[in-house]
Amino acid sequence: MPSNKALIAIPAWNESGSIASVVASVQEHRPDADILVVNDGSTDLTAQEAQEAGARVVSLPFNVGVGGAMRTAFLYAQREGYQALVQVDADGQHDPADLDRLLTGLKDADIVVGTRFHPESMYFVGGPRRWAMVLLSKALSWMNKGTISDPTSGFRSAGPKAIELFAIEYPADYLGDTVGSLSIAIRQGLVIHEAPVTMYFRQVGRPSKNALWSALYLGRATLAILATGLKSNRTPREDAA
Amino acid sequence: MTPNILAAGAALITFAFVFLLLRRGALREKYAVLWLFFSGAALFFAVFPGALDWLSQILGVAEPVNLLFFVTVVLLVLVSVQLSYELSRHEMRIRRLAEEVALLRDEISQDRTERDGN
């Protein structure tokens, strides 16, 4: 029934306090869209707060990580027949004002990744972390034969082809949900574009990112790309829906 | 002679323990068979050390003990890899089930509100 509606999927793990305002802000910008909060085994009031704010809430029995939460959202979108899905973080880092841009971008792409790197962006990273992200971006842009300047961005939209693909396969490992999923999509020949988005800084818990962190990060990202890029096309029977 | 008695004892205990687990239904046959075979083989070589000497001579291994260690290490590594494989498969299945449970729970509560509303 929701044929032309968009689904705004918000994976949330213990985001009580910010989830209600994120849902409200999305409603304000896209009153026509349906909102699905995937409660990823939260132990706080995330589910209740999201529900009271007017979102549809689907609760995983335990924490499975962003990848699992997103596959649940894609599965939901596929079964309910949605033609577009936008992933938005529950911590308020993403500006719902950018939703329009990500959704209209789907007219000529299967996936639109919101990039935090553009001339007007307030987002800045420096040092080793920057190099790691640049390397990652170069690798994926090369695979994609088109620029993906911010492959770890969790603010992105997916069209019908991507929904179909991600309902079956969406990596759960660290960085798999961002970098790995793009690598899978490229391999399946999906068209990936990007659009500039605004990024708000996280309010709390900004971990220090040093050289060692960046090296580990790059290693894990490489693993995520290799694991998904080299994967045989045959989906393991056990994992298929 | 003492090392052989020690080895035979260890093999016997392992065999008995695995057998007990199997009888209780705590271990699936496919894993139990593997360990029963390993402990059986260990018991055999403990009781007949000559067999090990003969085997290493055929394979050209100077020290029989080295052959024993080598084969043991290879087998244990194979078992570990197999277990990692099984574990990964189960994690994937559990994740899939968790996702399905979440969606089913949502469907049920939706049905319930619709029914109560009428």
Structure description:
The complex is a heterodimer of chains A (241) and B (118). Chain A has eight helices and seven strands; from the N terminus they run E-H-E-H-E-H-E-H-E-H-E-H-H-E-H. Chain A has helices at residues 19-29, 46-52, 65-80, 99-104, 127-144, 160-168, 176-187, 211-229, and strands spanning 6-12, 34-40, 56-60, 84-87, 111-115, 156-158, 192-196. Helices cover 91% and strands 0% of the residues of chain B. Chain B has four helices and no strands. In chain B, helix 1 packs antiparallel against helix 2, helix 2 packs across helix 3 (49-59) and helix 3 crosses helix 4 (64-117). At the A-B interface, strand 3 and helix 3 of A face helix 4 of B.
In terms of topology, how is this protein built?
The complex is a heterodimer of chains A (241) and B (118).
Chain A lengths: L5 E7 L6 H11 L4 E7 L5 H7 L3 E5 L4 H16 L3 E4 L11 H6 L6 E5 L11 H18 L11 E3 L1 H9 L7 H12 L4 E5 L14 H19 L12
Chain B lengths: L1 H23 L4 H19 L1 H11 L4 H54 L1
Helix pairs in contact in B: 1-2, 2-3, 3-4
